[in-house]
Amino acid sequence: MLKYLKALAIVALAAGTVAAVPAARADNTDDVNLTFASGATFTGTVDFANDSSSITRVNGILTGYEYGISGYTGVGSDSINWVWGLCGNCSGLSGDQFGNLLMDGIPFGDGFGDYSNFIAFTYDYTNAPSLVLDTAGNIGVDVDFQDFLVSGSVTPTPEPGPILLLGSGLLGMAVLVRRKPLQHA
Predict the structure, then answer these.
(1) pLDDT in tens, 117-169
(2) Which range of residues forms the domain containing residue 173?
(3) DSSP strand E in the chain: where?
């Protein structure tokens, strides 16, 4: 009976420790899923600054558009893989809103590049890390300033490191609890 109480106490201590520690993220990479009025979609990841006040990187696919063809085609896809650095905060909005252009193509050294499609991406980070897409801002969320957002979501990507660490710790405790003491001859 004492053995089971000891095991229960260890599990309760582990669960209490996990519940008391706030969820930490090693990065600010979020999954982004957008659907536009034309039926086009964007699926990918966007990296945000630690305080979510700017975008540092994007990697995703715009479906329904093709690189080299500006505008909705209904077929094909276009890789969106760089943030237009010259734009800074393109939204021009004050407070906790930020907007920039997520581009296809290739950026050049001067910050300009060869591109055909872009996503104007504005969001509110007042309650960061929870981000709200802004459809009413100066640039809102659209493709090429013409294909407006119908629905979308920004969700944090799961962090596998803490989950693996917790799992291996619980497994280790289970092994210790189940281990039988050595008997002396």
Answers:
(1) 999 999 999 999 899 998 876 788 999 999 999 999 999 877 655 555 566 66
(2) 2-17+161-178
(3) 29-36, 41-48, 55-63, 77-80, 82-83, 97-103, 106-107, 113-114, 118-124, 132-133, 141-143, 147-156
